[in-house]
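**Protein fold record**
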Amino acid sequence: MNRTTLSLIAAAAALAAVTGFAAATAPGGDGDSAKAAARLPVERSSLLCPAPSTSDLAETAYTSYTPASKGSGSSGKAALSPATRELTDGTGSGKGKADKPVLSPLKPGRPVAGESSGAESPALVGSADGNLAPGWTVQQTTEVAAGTGRGLLGVNCSAPDTDFWFPGASTAKERSDYIHLTNPDDSAAVVDVQLYGANGAIKSDVGEGIQVQPHSSVPVLLSTLTDKPQTNVTLHVTARSGRVAAAVLAADDKLGGDWLPASADPAGTVVLPGIPKDATSVRLVAFTPGDNDADLKIQLASPTGRITPAGHESLHVKSGMTAAVDLGDVTRGEAGSLVLTPTGDSAPVVAALRVVRGKGADQESAFIPATRPVGARATVADNRAKGSTLSLTAPGAAGTVKVTASAGTEGGTPVTKTYTVKGGTTMSVRPPVPAGLKGSYALTVEQVSGGEVYGSRMLDVSDADVPGVPMFTVQTLPDDRGTVSVPHADQDLSVLQK
């Protein structure tokens, strides 16, 4: 094989690793394809963090972490820098690309922290390449001591895409929900925002053709898209051109606030992991985007097995209409996860939970969207020595995972522990803490054997700053997609030069 052939093979593998696209092998048998494909680390990742808060009291921590990955090389670079903050009419201010990075990670295996304060903190646009790209994760955690949406607001900064579903949003009078759209690219993106209520699509011209300028962010108040407030709506965000990251900042006058991340892609079976054991109220919101209705069986995966909540055995979701059901204190003192399974010929759905802790004036809320399994590896940053709770759910067969606590941002030695989750149950544990921890740390969860495992992390920072309020946030743990499948090049590609 000549040097030109080797170069072509290397170029094909690199292209797949950079784009996350797995090339298809020639017809001839699934067995041959499985043997030929290899998993290689991605070589470039993009993450975007929304503007954290409009409150002058907001204090925001950013924590970046990349797990060490075999085959990712010995060097790389990454940075998170401010984006241009825009108004909803498309005008911007400042030049975010020129600003000093908020975070500049140096190497895999050790988290890096940064911070900002006040209402003027911008959205962040970030990229990582080389050994800092595979599994790159950034957690944005904001504490707001008072006012609408006070509490702990947490979100995993997300990769850009073109299609997002947000069941669980609201245009009710007591809610101030904003969809934050952030564009990482050098050309403008054009985005459509559509709301669906209990009776179907909500007509509005305001949400069509929203322009998001390059390297900038646009917040849109959802209540401005309709004249009739609705408690439960599903938000659909699509990019006509370009791509964006999207997340909903939901603030309630009485229940605090948090980020509502996008649901996993529509699916027949849906898992929403990590309802706290002391949840006082749980609301399920579901939507089916297809032409057919969905009929779902509702079950709680408890520490001892699946149970069906009394009076809430099933949910019918009409096509194109948002369905919601209040499950009350469904966990009854035991941490659990909600599992929705189709009954009969049921259409795929997207779903999310709003979870409330506390009582009376001392209530705080968070959101748990439907998520993917942890897969090969899932990562969550900004864990503290106290206040982190890890929930692991095996909705089918029992599954075993390995959990690794990284070194701390200011020091510490990694620690690893293995957990086996019984089929149909949820395991809620205090995760391992690095030896000699200083600062915050990251957790990685890797599937070892058995059935699929789903996970989430709850971070609780209840303290004297807001007496009596259980300030918390929940982040799900989907596979970080740090590797892609690249077929083995077993044919002479030099023919492409002829």
